[in-house]
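Minutes, project check-in

Agenda point 3 was the complex the collaborators sent over. CS summarized: two entities, 655 residues total, and the question is how they sit relative to each other. Sequences were read into the notes so everyone works from the same version.
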Amino acid sequence: MIEARALSKRFQDKKRGEIRAVDNVTFTCQPGKIYGLLGANGAGKTTTLRMLATILEPTDGTAIVCGHDVIEQPERVRANVGFLSTATALYRRLTAQEFVEYFGRLNGLDEATLKKRVDDIFNRLDMNGFRDRRCDKLSTGMMQKTSIARTLVHDPPVMIFDEPTNGLDIMTARTITAFIRECRNNGKTVIFSTHIMSEVEKLCDTIGIIQSGKLLAEGTLTQLRDKYAEHELEEIFVKIVTPHYVSTEAN
Amino acid sequence: MSLRNVGIVYRKELTEALRDRRTVISTILVPLLLFPVLSVGFGSLAVALVGKAKEEVPKVMLRGGEDSPEVVKGLKKLDTIEIVPETPGWKDQVINKEIRAAVEIPSGFQVDVARQKSDTVKIFNYQGEMKSEFASDKIETYMKEYRDKVVKERLAAKNLAETVLKPFEVNRENVAPPEKVSGAAFGGIIGYMVILLCMTGAMYPSMDLTAGEKERGTMETILSSPISRMHLVLGKFFLILTAALGTAALSVLSMGVSFSVLGHYTSQSATGREAAAGLILKLGPKTVISVFLMALPIAVLFSATLMTIALFAKTYKEAQSYLTPMTFVVIIPAIAAMLPGVELTPKLSLVPILGTSLLCKELVAGTYHWNLIAIIFASNCVYAAVALFLAIKMFQRESVLFRS
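CS then shared the predicted structure for the full assembly.
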């Protein structure tokens, strides 16, 4: 489970002064459910997820991931999390298998367990055809599968996806969305950020709409439709975000 | 601290480094080939060129000497020079290397010598031009021999012994063993090379493992794993240190082999033997171990400092522009140690690179100042520890890791 408690992140910028990238954000993600964080570019999605993955430290507030505090026990949090984004690239001079094994070892797996898990994941994701190929020689689809294998190698109960289909072709994107569904079916807690409405509609059990670092609305798709009297998610999103979006532009 | 995690990162970085052509070239190939090319290549070429220049029979123009047939005959009989008759524009001919030198016998020279009147024979040459200098040497040698013969004859005519003019001899004798002699000559350069190559060896991996990782987008990947940032930075640091020491070790090995090959090659020819005298440098295992022990904290200092600086950069290119000026920071004190008269003192031993460079000079010459060794080793360990501490701190700063 993930519990974000008044999570905030401020940055100092020489020209613009203090920037509140994430401002007092609170939400909960349940096991076996997909929480979708929907927002425009620069809304604060990536910063929020990076704080949950302990890549960034919150300025105020905190989050509890699988019972561990992101500030007090960042390493324990990371051991329970699989983090995937289009920014998490592969080590191009390692083979696909070496890459996945490296992260397995960093997650504390012993060699026997690691071998079993790698074989299992490579069979499941149909990766045996390129397991000994260097990452810089892989196609985009193969790279995505290798990244997925990395997030799965330690079988984490929490999965964090930061715009995982960004810039991918439709076939590769489908591999990712299928994988996200599989994580939910396996009882994992899944949080996933995107600005693609159709993905949210298809995948998410709970939707959080974020803009200017603030969580503006939260609920199931049905709850949001009822509350904002719109059927299309895009219309709901525009209705919620527009006043804040204008103020962001004015700033 | 988990050594297991540090080891995992180190092994992965090593695997990647050995698969990277640029790292292999800068860390292994360049140090291995640099000295053979510089010493055996250029050295043997220089020896061959000098030998050839010495064997050449230079053209020397004779000015005057019509009334001094004995001297002229003697000069013409020399098979080491070719006397050519005087033509106008002889100075330009020397400058244009058409002739190598000109010798001017003053008017009435032979008569003046017979009358015991002093005269001056002038040799005109192109100063600094090797072949012209060789030609002048040959003429000067002949003229001095002629003068000695005249002196001998005058002494004999007056029944005086040669010792009248040379009551005693003055001789210099070297008491230092050969390794100390070559150490004094080459100690400075060994220290300089080891320090500089530690730096160049650390430079490429320090950029690749920090700014390169940011540029390739793998920084976020590794930061999402449970490894602590301290273990991560230590794993990377040990790889950079390995590259620094590896480059320096390969260079010294390559330098040792090059010197012995050069020594063997030059001793084959008479001219080479002369040119190679003093080029032979013998590095015993004790010296090599001592130099490396002293280079160790310096290598730690370089590895940690370069890694810290490169971490600030967003891209590999930006890191290059930060680190290139560092080369000068290292070269200046390393060169200062090679200046004549700069000796190791307790004060200088505290200056990070200068102290080690001066000490290497002493170590190669086989001199061990234990108190200064202790000061240098301890002070360098302190500097290295500070640099490593800063590197670890930098790896924990989000503003550095995610600079945009």
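Noted in discussion: Chain A has two domains: 2-80+158-250, 89-155.
Follow-up: revisit at the next meeting once the mutant set is ready.
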